[in-house]
């Protein structure tokens, strides 16, 4: 594993939990994906488009739970590495994703390409009758999010967004209890995603990540996880957003960079609930207050959904109580949910509504910063019904 992948995995795994200490313990507690010697019985024939860092992780889950019949990537070295990993299933390898979509024997498609390609690929796959597991963000513009929503509704096929926090049992339990009143009515959320450094300028994703037209930037590409968790905890999508930010440290670094490296955002939800969110990539190691958290404040107390999930009572006397027990989260749980939905035996944890609202929340924040105006949900969301 190279340094870049490790860095990316840490940043992304951070979305799956919090401060570095908590992060380390969570990751260590996760079981590894064990690829069986043969596909499971009645395995669903699956293709993976985009076999980079995340696509390779998704491929391992597909090998554990399904059968890989086709692999696609424009980079020959990544395609070849994926083919080696998937040798058990002897998948065909192609560089043109349309040749995967056109195949009649492919029932499910995993899309793990850069974000600006998701919508076109997902729409084409759905229109060809495939079930789709699409990495987050669903898309990076309101129009492309809408296009995917429309295609999912018209297709009747299963669509799962790669917002895997939705499959975390501990979060499901904790959010469920918050929604049932464990901390009283939610009043405010304070969340952040701070890291010590920029994504590697020479790493696996460097050829697209720093171009805002391809990734959407940190907010849309990464913090869609964090913002979706905030929406989930509040039980709503925001009505409006305002914010400030820019390229504060890494100016023209890497050359041509168009994504921001620091910003503050405020969101206003129905019922007057507020969210304050900050992100930066220059929070020095050792300075308190780093990492990630989602603090949910209610009438009776508060809880960090990305930390210990304890409820800290507002009375200042009662000791904190555990909202949801720590459990081992299987790294393939989200892919398992995808296959369960295809078989009609499970509930979709991150359907198109979750994917679209997560992406649109991030896009709304991005637009608020870049236009310097308050952006309203109704101006970007369109019809999600
Ligand atoms: N769910 C998560 O926690 C998580 C974690 C990391 C990344 N991701 C998402 O996964 C996606 C990929 O991220 P990554 O880190 O793996 O990036 P990456 O750069 O490592 O991989 C992307 C791959 O897509 C390939 N590709 C580009 N254009 C293509 C095309 N037209 N046809 C076929 N393949 C093409 C690239 O060659 C590359 O191998 C992004 O949307 C990212 O946000 C999700």
Write up what this structure looks like.
The protein folds into two domains: 3-165 and 331-351, NAD(P)-binding Rossmann-like Domain (Rossmann fold); 169-326 and 360-380, Dihydrodipicolinate Reductase, domain 2. 37% of the residues lie in helices and 19% in strands. With 385 residues, the chain is of the alpha/beta class. It has a nine-stranded mixed β-sheet with strand order 14-13-12-11-7-10-9-8-15. It has a six-stranded parallel β-sheet with strand order 3-2-1-4-5-6, with helices on both faces. It has helices at 3-15, 20-29, 53-65, 76-85, 97-101, 118-127, 142-155, 169-179, 206-209, 212-215, 218-221, 224-234, 333-343, 352-371, 377-380; strands at residues 45-49, 67-72, 92-94, 108-111, 131-134, 159-161, 186-194, 240-246, 262-268, 274-280, 292-298, 301-304, 310-313, 321-322, 375-376. Helix 7 packs antiparallel against helix 14 (352-371) and helix 12 crosses helix 14. It is globular. Bound molecules: nicotinamide-adenine-dinucleotide (NAD). The site of nicotinamide-adenine-dinucleotide has 28 residues, from helix 1 and helix 3.
